């Protein structure tokens, strides 16, 4: 459904952002999609563990802010883009 169709259906248009991944590739993703699905669609691999947010294995940095990819969603960005880095935990 295109943006005008969604507006006509009474829903706001879907917003998307450009995501710059650690390997130098970029992809466009809809805001609100979960990070693991967005990474998979872009051919990226984010390590996982519990998939419930408690272990921290899936931590990524999004524009410098650490988030747990298994429970977080792609946020909107005023600049229209996000930069992702894999977080590293010295205890793993």
Question: Can you summarize this structure?
Answer:
The protein has 92 residues and is of the alpha+beta class. The chain has helices at 3-8, 35-41; strands spanning 16-20, 26-30, 59-62, 65-68, 81-86.
CATH class: Alpha Beta
CATH homology superfamily name: Beta-grasp domain
According to DSSP, the number of beta strands is 5
Elements, N to C (H/E): HEEHEEE
Class by helix and strand content? alpha+beta
Radius of gyration computed on alpha carbons:
14 Å
Query: What share of residues are in beta strands?
Result: 25-35%
Sequence stretches where pLDDT stays below 50 over 5 or more residues: 1-7
Overall 3D form:
globular
Amino-to-carboxy terminus distance = 43 Å
Q: Calculate the mean pLDDT score and round it.
A: 86
The CATH topology turns out to be Ubiquitin-like (UB roll)
CATH architecture: Roll
Largest sheet: 5 strands, mixed
Enumerate the strands of the largest sheet in spatial order, edge to edge or round the barrel.
Answer: 2-1-5-3-4
Tally of alpha and pi helices: 2
The share of residues in helices is 10-25%
Total separate domains: 1
């Amino acid at each position: 459904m295109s943006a005008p169709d969604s507006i006509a259906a009474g829903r706001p248009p879907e917003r998307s952002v450009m995501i710059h991944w650690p390997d130098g590739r970029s992809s466009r993703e809809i805001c609100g999609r979960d990070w693991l699905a967005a990474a998979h669609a872009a051919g990226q691999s984010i390590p996982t563990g519990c998939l419930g947010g408690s272990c921290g294995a899936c931590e990524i940095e999004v524009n410098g802010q650490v988030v747990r990819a298994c429970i977080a969603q792609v946020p909107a960005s005023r600049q229209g883009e996000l930069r992702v880095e894999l977080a590293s935990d010295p205890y793993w």
